[in-house]
Amino acid sequence: MKTLAVITPLLQTWKNQLQQLPIKCLFLTPQELKHHPETEGLLFRSEIAIDEALLKHLPRLRFIFRLGSGIDHIDEALCQKKGIKIIATPGTNAQSVAEHALGMLLGLTKRIYKSYREILQNKWLRRENTGVELSQLTIAIIGFGNTGSAFARLLQPFHTTILAYDKYKKHYAPSYVIETDWERIFKEADVVSFHVPLTQETYHYFDKALLERFRKPIYLLNLSRGAVVDAGAVVYGLQQKKLLGVGLDVWHSEPPDSNDPHWRFLCGHPQVILTPHIAGWSTKAHENAFEQVLIAIKNSL
């Protein structure tokens, strides 16, 4: 690899480190990339979609370095056909995502966000904002990879009951986590948190049919990919009191369309916390990802 195109904005120290490598680094905007057919390596976070429309402009591309874990915006099959190696950095932001999930959960169960909004309206409501302690709750984690397991570790000191479901794993749960199936989750869960990649199988994983199977109202968290959760099912769940609260860090199209009726409904709901896909964005997570991808780049020279 002689030429690396860098799309993601980088801290100056990272830029300096890249420039010390024995390769030519091109610091480009997404629009400029297609005008550099000499590109052999590509470093980015999530600024572009790697599809046929882009790859036809990059005939010499051999490596894709992804600062992050999800690769649902990369056409894996096409890259494999063209012999392009995809290198991601899974796990580097797991702690950040887990802390964000915990923050959302506490914000909902302790009614922090709801009561704050009321204070801005000159309302001082105490009894109406009685919260629940996490030790009272059974929390189901769907997907027990890097972020799901990190979330479980953070929950452990709260003495909550932690259930975990992962279709592709067996005998994975630590002693403080109960490895289980959906039937027990439907029966016992008070909180459901999704930590799965976006695939054809997980598209609208949480939908109205799944929601209807829960025996009691639940809190819902999604810090994976927006399309894992059907927005219509979320609105329905809140309207029917089947969802006690919702924390979403992701949306099916980002940034959201301000005219989307589902988005507008959620923005106005007191028991919904929305953040702009920042769960994995921390200074430490960025450093972890860059250190890992820098090693991969050096190994690819």
What labels describe this entry?
301 residues; 12 helices; alpha/beta; 2 domains; Rossmann fold; 35% helix; five-stranded parallel β-sheet
Task: Please tell me about this protein's structure.
- The protein is α/β, with parallel strands linked by helices and 301 residues long.
- The protein has 2 domains: 109 residues, Rossmann fold (3-Layer(aba) Sandwich), CATH 3.40.50; 181 residues, 3-Layer(aba) Sandwich (Rossmann fold), CATH 3.40.50.
- A 7-stranded parallel β-sheet has the order 8-7-6-9-10-11-12, with helices on both faces. A 5-stranded parallel β-sheet has the order 2-1-3-4-5, with helices on both faces.
- Helix 5 packs across helix 7 and helix 10 crosses helix 11.
- It is elongated and about 65 Å long.
Summary, kept brief:
This protein is an alpha/beta fold and 301 residues long. It has helices at 12-19, 30-33, 52-55, 76-82, 94-109, 112-120, 146-155, 182-188, 208-212, 231-239, 261-267, 283-300; strands at residues 3-6, 24-27, 41-44, 63-66, 85-87, 138-142, 161-165, 178-179, 191-194, 218-222, 243-248, 272-274. The protein has twelve helices and twelve strands.
The portion of residues assigned to helices is 25-40%
* Overall structural domain count: 2
The residue ranges in which pLDDT falls below 50 over 5 or more consecutive positions are none
The end-to-end distance, rounded to whole angstroms, is 5 Å
CATH homologous superfamily caption of the largest domain: NAD(P)-binding Rossmann-like Domain
Helix/strand/pairing class, anyone? Answer: alpha/beta
Average pLDDT works out at 95
Radius of gyration (CA) equals 21 Å
The total of beta strands comes to 12
Number of helices: 12
Oligomer class: single chain
CATH class placement of the largest domain:
Alpha Beta
